[in-house]
């Protein structure tokens, strides 16, 4: 039996399998894009198709006039920006402290940070704590604060900080630098790769979160994008709330089209930033998650 | 050395080690308790101990205390993080008391009256319980199996691809769904399978098959959810496996090639056996979480569609619904507590098992 022939067959199988799987992964995205540019009448008649017969941008022009979309977009952007900055700050400080051998309370602190990964108080007590005792309902803080310090990401950073040479810190301290300056001027700049990775993890978490807002946010003006979208998944008519009454659509409200265009607008920033996201995610996964 | 070596600090000084086992925080707490507390009981307990020992003990405690404040900046750095963890992760743990109470929102957690195990009784005798637990376990098993197989296939075959741009492009596309929120996934599912004439049905008709009323057929949903899970997460696991594959020394393959092995044989005899540690660790970690239903995924896709509950309702969605719809806080906290405890036991069991097999791979 000719081995090189067999190898070639195996190679072809690899290409076909990977190619087909990649196409299947991409297919839903393509359907959404094409759906968002299809005329409503065609969508109602034929459903979503790979190549629309009639091209239309109504779903987008209508959406851009929607006040609700803009307010939810601003909410999501605010949650992501403030949340990520705060989370990165808090987690990096905690991780640096946990990774430092001179922190004598380190053993207890590590256990304290680790335990929540093992035991969860439960949804109900969590809900009551945030809404009844902290009074955070219907504020964006209810979405930001609970996700601000995630043990898994903290440990990702602890792992990284531990790989930094001790001498770096020691020599700076011997030269008379205050610990604060050592942290800000030396440790933060050389940790940029891991900070970027963790920041992206947090940012993605905030952008995609809908559970916290589902639990705590009832006022429509405080809705993030994901909640607007969620309402449309279960209820087709909900798309109507996004269409302004003065949009001048007399024939047919583009409900199906608006669902698709809202989805595209929601995932837009992720897809645009994807090359960056992917690079750092793969790094984070392969360096940090494989424990040292 | 494992990641969480701080959990159990090994000190040379044996006398000291019992205290160190609880970490320094433990010893500080203890010291605070002993030093600050003037209660007669403590005084009596202390008088029983020999004075010399007490002094030695006290000195040791003060020493670890003093050392902590040698680096106050480091302690200070940790404070904001520890406080948020305390508020959002530890305070709710106190709420597990709810499982033994008849919760009254106005009275708060402590003020509500005790009902003993009544909440558990309700839940243990309800017919829902069995269905919900079964669904949680079965769905998770289905997810673990399908995702692992798909991710392995992707990783192994992606590694065979020699055209650089093709490998990079397809890896990017396969990883992309992982970045989509479950709401977006729910929207996609709804557009493909729902509505007046679902897109997938159009395809079925073109293939000469009969239409399916997707949102009425509960028995199909474990399969549908597994497919969605593979679509969403296989790329993520494939990257972990791919990283493991690239760490396999190249000379193994070269030696195999010289011995006349085909690529397929190399995959079967070298790649797969060497991946077994990674596979088993990832799988064990997933098994440790098998009692946790994926709320974000299932609620985003199935929502309140009660026709599908027989096969898709998991513990987490059940708890959420009892809270939001039925307003039954007591029973749902009982279910939640049951789940948390089962989860904890399982994680600890899995971890001790992993540690016995391979110490490096254990969580702690």
TrEMBL record, chain A:
Keywords, comma-separated and alphabetical: Cell membrane, Membrane, Transmembrane, Transmembrane helix, Transport
Single Gene Ontology BP annotation: transmembrane transport
TM region(s), chain numbering: 12-33, 73-96, 108-128, 140-161, 182-204, 256-277
Topology relative to the membrane: Multi-pass membrane protein
UniProt xrefs under Gene3D superfamilies: MetI-like (1.10.3720.10)
Cell compartment(s), UniProt: Cell membrane
InterPro entries cross-referenced by the UniProt entry: MetI-like, MetI-like_sf
Organism in which the protein naturally occurs: Paenibacillus agaridevorans
Family stated for the protein in its record: Belongs to the binding-protein-dependent transport system permease family.
The protein, known as: ABC transmembrane type-1 domain-containing protein
ABC transmembrane type-1 domain boundaries: 73-277
Transmembrane among keywords: yes
Claim: Protein biosynthesis is one of the keywords in the record: no
Domain of life (superkingdom): Bacteria
A Gene Ontology cellular-component term: plasma membrane
């Amino acid at each position: 039996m000719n081995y090189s022939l067999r190898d070639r067959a195996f190679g072809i199988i690899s290409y076909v399998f990977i190619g087909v799987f990649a196409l299947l992964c991409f297919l839903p995205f393509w359907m959404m894009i094409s759906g968002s540019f299809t005329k409503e009448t065609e969508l109602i008649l034929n459903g979503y198709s790979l190549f629309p017969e009639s091209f239309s941008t109504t779903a987008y022009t209508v959406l851009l006039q929607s006040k609700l979309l803009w307010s939810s977009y601003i909410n999501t952007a605010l949650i992501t920006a403030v949340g990520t900055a705060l989370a990165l700050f808090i987690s990096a400080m905690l991780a640096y402290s946990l990774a430092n051998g001179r922190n004598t309370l380190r053993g207890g602190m590590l256990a304290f940070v680790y335990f929540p990964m093992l035991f969860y108080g439960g949804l109900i007590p969590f809900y009551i704590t945030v809404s009844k005792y902290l009074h955070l309902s219907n504020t964006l803080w209810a979405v930001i604060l609970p996700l601000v310090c995630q043990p898994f990401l903290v440990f990702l950073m602890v792992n990284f900080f531990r790989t930094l040479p001790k001498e770096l810190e020691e020599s700076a301290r011997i030269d008379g630098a205050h610990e604060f300056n050592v942290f800000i001027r030396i440790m933060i700049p050389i940790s940029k790769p891991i900070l970027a990775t963790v920041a992206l993890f947090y940012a993605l978490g905030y952008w995609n979160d809908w559970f916290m807002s589902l639990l705590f946010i009832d006022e429509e003006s405080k809705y993030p994008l994901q909640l607007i979208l969620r309402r449309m998944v279960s209820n087709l008519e909900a798309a109507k709330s996004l269409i302004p009454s003065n949009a001048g659509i007399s024939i047919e409200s583009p409900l199906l089209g608006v669902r698709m265009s809202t989805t595209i607008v929601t995932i837009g920033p992720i897809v645009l930033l994807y090359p960056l996201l992917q690079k750092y995610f793969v790094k984070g996964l392969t360096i940090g998650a494989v424990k040292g | 050395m494992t990641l969480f070596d701080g959990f159990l600090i090994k000190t040379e000084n044996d006398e000291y080690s019992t205290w160190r086992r609880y970490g320094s925080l433990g010893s500080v707490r203890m010291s605070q308790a002993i030093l600050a507390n003037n209660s007669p009981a403590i005084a009596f307990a202390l008088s029983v101990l020999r004075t010399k020992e007490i002094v030695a003990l006290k000195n040791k405690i003060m020493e670890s205390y003093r050392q902590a404040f040698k680096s106050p900046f480091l302690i200070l750095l940790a404070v904001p993080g520890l406080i948020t963890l305390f508020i959002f992760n530890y305070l709710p743990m106190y709420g597990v008391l709810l499982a033994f109470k008849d919760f009254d929102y106005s009275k708060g957690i402590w003020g509500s009256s005790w009902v003993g195990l009544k909440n558990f009784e309700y839940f243990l005798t309800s017919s829902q319980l069995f269905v919900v637990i079964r669904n949680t376990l079965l769905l998770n098993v289905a997810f673990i199996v399908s995702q692992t197989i798909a991710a392995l296939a992707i990783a192994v075959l992606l590694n065979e691809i020699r055209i650089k741009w093709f490998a990079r492009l397809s890896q990017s596309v396969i990883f992309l769904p992982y970045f989509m929120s479950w709401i977006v996934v729910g929207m996609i599912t709804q557009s493909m399978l729902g509505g007046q004439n679902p897109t997938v049905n159009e395809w079925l008709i073109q293939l000469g098959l009969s239409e399916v009323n997707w949102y009425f057929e509960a028995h199909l949903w474990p399969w549908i959810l597994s497919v969605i899970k593979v679509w969403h997460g296989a790329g993520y696991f494939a990257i972990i496996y791919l990283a493991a594959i690239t760490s396999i020394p190249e000379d193994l393959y070269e030696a195999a090639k010289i011995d006349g092995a085909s690529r397929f044989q190399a995959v079967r005899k070298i790649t797969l056996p060497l991946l077994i540690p990674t596979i088993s660790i990832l799988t064990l970690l997933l098994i440790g979480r098998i009692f946790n239903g994926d709320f974000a995924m299932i609620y985003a896709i199935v929502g309140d569609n009660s026709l599908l509950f027989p096969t898709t309702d998991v513990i987490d969605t059940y708890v959420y619904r009892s809270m939001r719809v039925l307003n039954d806080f007591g029973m749902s906290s009982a279910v939640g507590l049951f789940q948390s405890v089962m989860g904890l036991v399982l994680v600890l069991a899995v971890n001790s098992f992993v540690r016995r097999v391979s110490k490096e791979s254990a969580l702690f």
